[in-house]
Amino acid sequence: MFIDFFYLLKRNGLPVSLRELLTLLEALQKRVVEFMPLVVLRL
């Protein structure tokens, strides 16, 4: 789920890396942030 999201960000020019993905997953695991589903429209 998050991997697809990160590839979407990368395809659209955002400078994301594996480090950001791992940091997000770690924050979710520690409940520092909450996952809230959002709808992303692909135009």
Write up this protein:
The radius of gyration is 11 Å and the shape is flat. The longest helix is centred in the middle third of the chain and has 12 residues, at 18-29. It has one domain (1-34). It contains 2 helices and no strands. The protein is 51% helix and 0% strand. The mean pLDDT is 82. It is mainly alpha-helical and 43 residues long.
Index terms:
mainly alpha; 43 residues; 51% helix
In short:
The protein has 43 residues and is an all-alpha fold. It is built from two helices and no strands.
**How would a textbook summarize the main sheet?**
none
Shape, please?
flat
Q: Mean pLDDT, as a whole number?
A: 82
- Rounded to an integer, what's the Rg over CA atoms? 11 Å
User: How many domain regions?
Assistant: 1
Query: Topology as H/E string?
Result: HH
Runs in which pLDDT lies below 50 for 5 or more consecutive residues are none
Q: Into which percent range does the helicity of residues fall?
A: 40-55%
* Alpha-beta classification: mainly alpha
Query: For the terminal residues, how far apart are their CA atoms?
Result: 19 Å
**SS summary, helix count:** 2
Amount of beta strand = under 5%
Overall strand count:
0
Describe the secondary-structure layout.
Elements: H1 2-11, H2 18-29
